[in-house]
Every structure is written in C-alpha cells, then in structure tokens.
Specification:
Mean pLDDT: 95
CATH superfamily: START domain
CATH topology: Alpha-D-Glucose-1,6-Bisphosphate, Chain A, domain 4
CATH architecture: 2-Layer Sandwich
Helix content: 10-25%
Shape: globular
Order of helices and strands: EHEHEEEEEEH
Number of domains: 1
Number of helices: 3
CATH class: Alpha Beta
Distance between the termini: 31 Å
Radius of gyration: 16 Å
Low-confidence stretches: none
Strand content: 35-45%
Length: about 170
C-alpha cells in the first residue's frame, strides 16, 4: 500500500510567486482544439514522456473543476495526486497536487494554457513548487535538471500534437 504525504493547497498566487517556478512557452503549428484533445486524452502524459509511466484520470468525463488524476513517474518511483481547480474547456487547466507518494514537496501546482496564435497555438506550461522544510537547498540544486525534464514534457506534448492527426481516436 502506497503511503501518501499530504501537500498544502496551491493557488494562482502561488503559481505567480513561488520561489521555484518554471515556465515553458512553445509555439505549435496546429490549432488549440487539437492540442487540447491531446492534452486531455486518456493517454495524456504517458504518450509523450518516458519518465511519466502512468497517468490515471480518477474522475469520470466530462472533466471540469474538481477533476482528479494520479500521475506516476518512473514505474512507481514517485506519484502525485492532482485536483484541477481550473478547467476552461479547450483553453486552460490548472491543478494543485493534494498528496505525493514521497516526501519532499510542501506545495506543487501546474498551469497549462493554450492561446490561439497566427501560426497555430501558443502553449504556456507553468510549474510551481515549494520544498518541504529542510529540502529547499536540494530543490535549488536540482532546479536545472527539473527545467530540463519539464521542458521535455512541453516538447513531448508539442511533438505528439503535431504527429497525431486531427480527429484520430484516442
């Protein structure tokens, strides 16, 4: 049985002011509706990241505010239970992690927005985190690696959206 460590709730203020904050912006040559369909597919995350080995929507469709998901990294090395507090269909999702399977974070949140752009879609993916007491120096040291890993997730989403034809069944 997995032990879960509760995390403090995060909000929009935290997403803007967190000491450890990573923002990736990518431009995709496909429309926001198509990117959204990839982002919310049943295989979201696992289909474009080798590090994320499970992503289970624990709420029924249609998704919206209050939707929950459990994301597992490295075949069980760590997992997060997420609750979406913003769900703007086709445009933006934001979640706070409610608990983690490993100690280390005090708060964790992500915000993903899709904006129409003359060439397709502007993807903005923001990660915000706060370390548990005593682990702030470790998080500070690992920030370059976390930037690289999360940039890979944003790029993976972009590649998946461009490689997967519009209207294909997921």
């Amino acid at each position: 049985m997995t032990r879960w460590y509760p995390l403090a709730a995060a909000d929009d203020e935290f997403l803007q002011t967190a000491r450890f904050r990573i923002v990736h912006v990518a431009y995709l040559s496909t429309d926001p509706a198509h990117v959204w369909s990839v982002l919310t597919a049943h295989d979201a995350l696992v289909s474009w990241s080798r590090l994320i080995t499970a992503s289970d929507w624990t709420s029924h469709r249609p998704f919206g505010i209050g939707t929950t998901r459990t994301v597992t990294l490295g075949h069980g090395a760590a997992a997060l239970r997420e609750r979406f507090y913003r769900w703007e269909e086709g445009r933006r999702i934001t979640f706070t992690a409610e608990s983690a399977s490993r100690p280390g974070f005090r708060r964790f949140a992500e915000d993903i927005s899709l904006d129409a752009h003359p060439d397709g879609t502007r993807l903005t993916w923001t990660f915000a985190m706060e370390a548990a007491p005593g682990l702030t120096p470790f998080l500070a040291l690992s920030l370059p690696l976390l930037r690289r890993v999360t940039r890979g997730w944003a790029r993976g989403l972009a590649h998946k959206a461009l490689d997967h034809p519009k209207g294909a069944t997921r």
